[in-house]
Amino acid sequence: MNGRLALRLAAIGYVLLLLALPVGLIVYRAFAGGVPAAWQAMTNPDALHALWLTALIALIAVPLNAAFGVLCSIVLVRHNIRGKAFLGALVDLPLGLSPVVVGLALVVVYGRYGWLGPWLADRGYAVIFAVPGMVLATILVTLPFVVRETVPVLHEIGTDQEQAAATLGASPLQIFMRITLPAIRSGVGYGVVLTTARALGEFGAVSVVSGNIIGETQTLTLYVQDRFQSFDSTGAYTASLELAVLALLILPLMSLLRKKERS
Amino acid sequence: MIRSKIVRLISLASVVVMANLGGLGRTTVAAPARAGTTLSLVAYSTPQQAYGQLIPAFQATAAGKDVSFHESFGASGSQSQLVAQGLPADVVEFSLEPDMGRLVNAGIVSANWYKNAYHGFVTDSAVVFGVRPGNPKHIHTWADLIRAGVSVLTPNPFTSGGARWNVMAAYGAMIKQHKTRAQALAYLRQLFRHVAVQDDSARHELQTFDAGKGDVMLAYENDMITAKASGEKLDWIMPPQTILIENPLAWTLSSKSPNQARAFVKWLWSPAAQQIWGQNGYWPVVPSVRKHFSFTRPKTTLFTIRDFGTWTKVQKTFFDPATGLMVDIEKTAGSAAP
Amino acid sequence: MSALAPALPLPASAGRIGRRSMIRVTVMGYLSIAVLLPLAAIVWKSSGAGVAGLQQAVTSPETVSALELTTLASVAVALVNAVTGTLIAWVLVRDTFPGKALLNSVIDLPFALPTIVAGLTLLTLYGPLSPFGVDAAYTRWAVVLALLFVTLPFVVRAVQPVLHELDPEMEEAAAALGAGKSTTFRRVILPNILPAMLSGAVLGFARSMGEFGSIVLISGNIPYRTEVASVRIFGLIQSDDVVGAAAVSVVLLVISLLALLLVTGIERRTRRYER
Q1: Vertex B244 angle, CA B314 and B131, to 5°
Q2: pTM here?
Q3: For a designed S-S bond to B281, which of A162, B23, B87, B222 qualifies (C-beta 3.0 to 4.6 A apart)?
């Protein structure tokens, strides 16, 4: 099976050079000062707060985008409306948005002189420079993934099973929960993985929108930057390692969802 | 199966959100009493370490008892813009004056912010040449920077406010050597032809230097002192002529605790505070403290931005993105860099 | 497209219409708050100086140079990803070897890692102090390298689910008819995964257009040489030229959108000839 081996080596080699080596470097630098130093870096109050905040934002943004993603995919694939291209474009748009631009846009809407900022501030709602603004920024940049991953799968599985169930008298909700959702599980699963990973790693947009207030609105990515600024190499790389580990933890969770695929 | 998983996920999320509302977030500097005030400090990036010592010292004084702090550090221009857009701030400190001016225009800082014995500047520093340990390429003067085979690093003056100090230092050095304006500009053009890389910020510039690029980097003296103390492998040379960097500090009109904010700002000029600044590589502005530190520059001609007009005028002349003098100079940047 | 319509014994049409409308309203509402609002803000800001101002902001030589570099690099990266991403997805779905699960897990890391860390590690590995003697930093190659890193997951994750769902009967039939492996791939598999490949590639393209953090360290941001569009936008914001920044952002968005629309159109046409 020479062809198979060659393909395998090529794939592994590419990932190794481009991805595994940089990650290996991160691990190396995280522990370059010894394990106790690394542990201390990971457990100081600001680092812990950053970890907690990152997880919190992800736990809000990801389920919201996942639910939206499934609904939107259904509209894009199963509904018959005009302007589907427009809808699809709107969903994909965040991908072309540079993080600098996202920050700028959110400030124009929610900032001190913004469209909604003063109105919200009058009612005591802090959006920008507070966690809600950071959640909004994260939702914006991670919006497309579940949709994009689910749409092809929805197309691929077709409507045969759904039609069959309908003729057998199943209600639309039953069809959705028992037939559609399980069938698109792999697409949704991958989409959620991508969404979570991206939410964890978001830096640019959140940095503008958060105001980067230490111990208050600093996510792990902002904390990494903070540590670099302070020449704290161990702190920076251990925080990066935490992000990598968090991302690695998500995948097995998702494969649990995928478990019962067609054998 | 999926439904129960989704339900579980949502309940987990709700628990976390509830916990958040219950106040799991923490502030960084030890908050003494919840009944005290909280001051928000928004500053540029380099004094972060200094404030790590300044704030506890302030909290040990009578005026600072029961005062806790929120701190935010970042690139001077960006921080200034954020405050103008509503980032809560009681005390602000920036790398250069125009960033304070922006807040004056926005009505956030009083137009009289600079009216004290030190013109509102809490620390000084200078533009220096950062070099490899031992200065292997023997870089001592501005002329050395444009020698063949010398590669120079400076941040991009259009993205880094701090880099504008570098440009004006170079320009001013020429003027102080009695060159004409045309000759000084010609030098700038020459200099930028030796600039291989222009990072967007001073800190990234340091990373680049660390990564092995460049023979000399234009930097702040206090940055070099902090870097070296943190174990970075570099040295620095004081040029024969250089610009005095002056960092503006003020309290804001929008502060909800104006008394404490003002007290903190005033305290930063106290001998105790200036001593701490000095220990962190900043040149104290208070003469009685200054003389205890060896920031002496006997052979250096120091000039300030005021030799060329106000920062506003200089920004327009040199750094306007459309009509600035640097726009044309940037076009040939890097062409002679090794 | 509305395949359910003719075959179903229709429930009360009002109920069905109501349910469908509700879904659509929810979707549009969510999109409006999350995307339309910020987008409108950018477009509005960019119009601040009128059409003339927009034109001037966008045609300044440094901006044009940055846009050219960004677009070229993004296209190149999309093409490379289409090949390598499919390769990796193939190996992950069709092959079995020790460590495959690990390989599968790390694919998403480029998303989770802060872009500054990505830039820094790439700089260390492939910059002036590279242990391999490969110094690509501060060149246009550095931009491509950084982009390849951050867009690695896109094509892989787009193709993987489709490969999973692929019906093995087609390939078995082709084999039974005597088709060789590469013919089978070209004629049977490729057409089925092409939409996903395109989808993933264009996602990567769009992401590349806006990428900032990973490029900013390793490229040197040299105007007219290695300065990408997002860095240019950043510079404009720093110079308080928010209108100019918004204008260039709009151009970036338009280019990304055009690419996305083009690919969606191709996808739809490809799908029409399926079955």
Answers
A1: 105
A2: 0.86
A3: B222
Q: Look at the domain B125-244+296-331 and name its fold.
A: D-Maltodextrin-Binding Protein; domain 2 (3.40.190)
User: What is the nearest CA distance from A42 to chain C, expressed in angstroms?
Assistant: 16
Under 8 Å CB pairs connecting chains A and C tally to 301
Which chains are adjacent to chain A, needing at least 3 Cβ pairs under 8 Å?
A: B, C
Burial of C16 (C-beta count, 10 Å sphere; 0-12/13-18/19+): middle
Question: In this structure, which amino acid lies at residue B150?
Answer: V
Q: Report d(CA B222, CA B54) in Å as an integer.
A: 16
Over 90: is that where the pLDDT of A43 sits? Answer: yes
Tell me the pLDDT tens digit for each residue of B300-322.
899 999 999 988 899 999 998 77
C43 and C66 assigned to the same domain: no
The shortest C-alpha distance from A85 to chain B (Å) reads 30
Q: Chain A residues with CB inside 8 Å of B85's CB?
A: 107, 111-114, 128
Picking from A112, A212, A260, the nearest residue to B85 by CB comes out as: A112
Q: At what angle do helices C50-59 and C61-94 cross, to 10 degrees?
A: 70
Q: Which residues of B touch C62 (CB under 8 A)?
A: 327, 330
Q: What is the CA radius of gyration of chain C?
A: 23
Which residue, among C121, C182, C184, C236, would best test binding to A if mutated, counting the most A CBs under 10 Å from its CB? Answer: C121
Residues 6+ apart with CB under 8 A from B149: B338
Beta-ladder partners of B38: B68
- Nearest CA-CA distance, residue A252 and chain C, Å: 8
Q: Do A149 and C161 touch (CB under 8 A)?
A: yes
Looking at chain A, the whole-number percentage of residues with pLDDT higher than 90 is 45
Range of the domain at C193: 60-272
Per-residue pLDDT tens over the stretch A47-67: 999 999 999 999 999 999 999
What is A44-258's CATH topology? Answer: MetI-like fold (1.10.3720)
Alpha carbon distance, N-terminus to C-terminus of chain C: 13
Question: Is C55 within a domain?
Answer: no
